[in-house]
Design brief:
Layout: H1 4-7, H2 12-33, H3 38-46, H4 52-57, H5 67-77, H6 79-106, H7 111-121, E1 152-157, H8 191-206, E2 209-215, H9 253-264, H10 271-286, E3 324-327, H11 331-336, H12 338-346, H13 355-371, H14 379-389, H15 398-420, E4 425-439, E5 448-461, E6 468-471, H16 482-487
Parallel strand pairs: 1-2, 3-5
Antiparallel strand pairs: 4-5, 5-6
């Protein structure tokens, strides 16, 4: 591979990838002969740096593709591919860290071969192609491909989501050796063939169960998890069981703490068992991470609302001499249900921020830029800003990201058209802060509420500058009716 005279005899469309790899290895070989530090040799390989001599010798073209770039994009995108990219990046960082420590310890004198020998002597847990039989008291986690030679009483196939089962993504490897025929190059499989192969693989995974089969998927517009796969309807076992709501026991630290708290207060359990549970709760409350931070404040009884005595001043929503803070957007919630407002805004019992909320923040930021003149009123300029921010959002599948991106771009386009039509008015402010206090108890005038927030946009009429118009942008999926808008306290 590092001898170009053999590779140059093969047509370029077949050998270009192999020649590029050969040129890269030849460049690395020259660095090794010069006794360059291991870390630098690895960096050149990782960064696909080929010197000019080998570029000409192997007749290779420059390429914009880099595995490092692909990993970074996948890691930022999130989802299944993002988690795989995170693991790959962790492994690469560990390898570079080992090389750096070796160079520092030996001042770069040991070379690549000694470093590789040291790595070879280390014991790494690796997967094996030979599958061991599944024992009755064990749970074995395998890919669908590796399940072909297995049989189990109970088989679970999770995450059967659209765009995952089946997946239409091309799964080419670096050299594409599967395309090399006896005399010709075999064409790459079409997307329809890949989908058909995934469907057959799903049937194989199903058939591994001898007694019980569980296939699961999630349908949740709120969590951006996409749609269940159509393969669910290929299971001939009657109707699909739809379970509403969140899982009974989410696998998170806070959920575990909540479950332990319930058990510790449940009289149906024995005193010894509850004592053991309380010890584990105390262990969670006192354990700290590497930065000396508590790993679970929820495990500390001093933070439990139920432990506060009546009239206790602990965790008050506001000191007696200060007003209660209410945001402008929270007025409607406070009017409709004071308990809901308290739980969400003060007790922190709200669902984590989702992409829909982040998209709303993006639209508001772009609207502010349009209003104050920081962004030119041009769709391409707005799109450039959107493209800069979008990779920071995480989606479970590419098609969800693309769908949300298209919807956001349409919102921004409508915003721009609306902005350009405001000819009879001029903008006098964007994201204008407001704050005022009101008394809520006639008998106790010191009890006050402070309402504060930001006005998205303030306009004045050109003919009459004293006549102001307050604009509030709404990005929710649910549009207020005229009657609801008239009654909205915000």
């Amino acid at each position: 591979m590092i001898d170009p005279k053999y590779l140059l005899e093969i047509p370029s469309e077949i050998s270009q990838g192999v020649r590029r790899l050969g040129a890269l290895l030849a460049s690395a070989s020259q660095l090794i002969k010069k006794k360059v530090r291991v870390e630098i040799v690895m960096w050149n390989i990782w960064n696909l740096e080929i010197d000019e001599q080998n570029t000409k010798l192997f007749d290779v073209e420059k390429t914009s593709y880099k595995w490092s770039k692909t990993l970074r994009e996948n890691a930022l995108r999130g989802g299944i591919e993002g988690r795989k990219a995170d693991k790959d990046l962790d492994s690469i960082l560990a390898l570079f860290d080992a090389a750096s420590r070796d160079d520092e310890r030996t001042l770069g004198t040991r070379g690549v071969l000694n470093f590789l020998n040291d790595l070879g002597m280390q014991a790494f847990q690796a997967e094996t192609l030979a599958q061991k039989p599944i024992e009755d008291d064990r749970v074995q986690i395998v890919t669908a491909h590796k399940s072909k030679e297995l049989q189990a009483k109970f088989v679970i196939i999770p995450d059967v989501q659209a765009d995952i089962w089946p997946s239409s993504r091309l799964r080419n490897n670096l050299l594409e050796v599967e395309r090399l025929g006896y005399e010709t190059v075999v064409r790459s499989p079409s997307r329809s063939e890949i989908i058909a192969e995934d469907i057959r693989l799903f049937e194989v995974a199903k058939s591994r169960a001898s007694q019980k089969l569980l296939v699961s998927a999630i349908k949740s517009d709120f969590a951006d998890n996409g749609e269940p796969s159509g393969l669910l309807h290929k299971i001939n076992s009657g109707t699909i069981n739809h379970v509403s709501g969140f899982p009974h026991k989410p696998l998170s630290l806070n959920a575990v703490v909540s479950e332990i708290r319930k058990i510790a207060q449940d009289d149906t359990y024995s005193a010894d068992f509850k004592k053991a549970v309380a010890k584990r709760l105390n262990k969670l409350a006192t354990t700290k991470d590497a930065f000396e931070r508590e790993i679970s404040k929820a495990a500390d009884p001093q933070n439990w609302w139920a432990t506060f005595k009546s009239g206790s001043t602990q965790n008050k929503i506001a000191p007696d001499d200060e007003p209660v803070m209410v945001s402008g957007s929270g007025l409607a919630t406070l009017r409709d249900c004071g308990l809901k407002w308290f739980l969400e805004k003060k007790a922190g019992a709200n669902v984590p921020r989702q992409n829909s909320a982040s998209i709303g923040s993006i639209v508001h930021a772009l609207a502010q830029g349009l209003s104050n003149g920081e962004i030119e009123p041009d769709i391409q300029k707005l799109k450039e800003k959107l493209d800069q921010i979008w990779p920071q959002l995480s989606f479970e599948a590419d098609w969800i990201s693309q769908r949300s991106y298209d919807e956001t771009l349409e919102i921004i386009s409508n915003l721009l058209n609306w902005h350009l039509k405001r000819t009879g008015r001029k903008v006098v402010g964007a994201e204008v802060n407001f704050s005022f206090e009101i008394s809520v108890d006639k008998d106790n005038p010191n009890q006050k509420v402070k309402v504060s927030g930001f006005i998205d946009r303030v306009e004045s009429e050109i003919d009459n500058e004293k006549r102001l118009h307050i604009i509030d942008f709404k990005t929710s999926k649910y549009t207020l009716t005229k009657e609801q808008a008239d009654e909205d306290p915000q």
